[in-house]
Cytoskeletal protein RodZ (Actinomadura rubteroloni), 250 residues
Amino acid sequence: MGIGETLAEGREQAGLTITEVSLRTRVRESVIRGIERDDFAACGGDFYARGHIRTIARVVGVDPEPLVRAFDDAHGGAPQPSSASGAWETDRPLVPFRERRGPNWSAAMAMAFAALVVVGGVQFFGGRGGEHAARQVAERPAQAAASPHRQQPRRAGDPVAAAPRKNVELRLKARRATWVNVRGDKGRTLFSGTLRSGTVREWKAKKKISVLIGNGGGVRLTVNGKDLGTPGQSGNVVHLDFTPSDPEAA
């Protein structure tokens, strides 16, 4: 029995119509009909076809793993993501995700440092006074420059160095039922399925997390502890990649 025939039989045994399966999986009815005929051309690529097979199988009560293995055997192994433009209900173009940036702390830190230098200079000259004190203050920067082990005072405009993160962390909260595919290091699948409204999930990887969201307005993202809000409008498919350095500082 082929993949499509197995899914069609499972759907009928579950008492579901193609329309009901489409509403539960957010996969278009025409795509589901094609899959049940073992026609995966409308899926948008092998990567998304595998995701549709998994999602539909779970909804109709069929074990997805044997079907995915059969698909891989017939199509040359597990594929990498391609375009998802034809796989979901919406035909609207993707909305670019504008990354929110944090405040620029460089100028504020530089001003605070300058204020400390002024106060320290006033106290020093008040306690020692005279030409000798001025000579001592002038000599200290030269001594600091000559020593390779002493840190130079940071100048205004220099970037504030932040300790590098060791991992990338993604937190996702579903505002409404949304299909999500999350992949970690080396493309390993961390999650693939539909999140119910109100569900909160978290994932972690060392180098990179890739997330494919079937409804950009249906979720809220937090990356490395920073709330990025919703990544797109309702009905739009969004594909994002995050690393330990995201979101970048301004």
Observations:
- Residues 168-242 form one domain.
- The CA atoms of residues 195 and 247 lie 24 Å apart.
- The radius of gyration is 28 Å.
- The chain has three domains: 3-75, 106-146, 168-242.
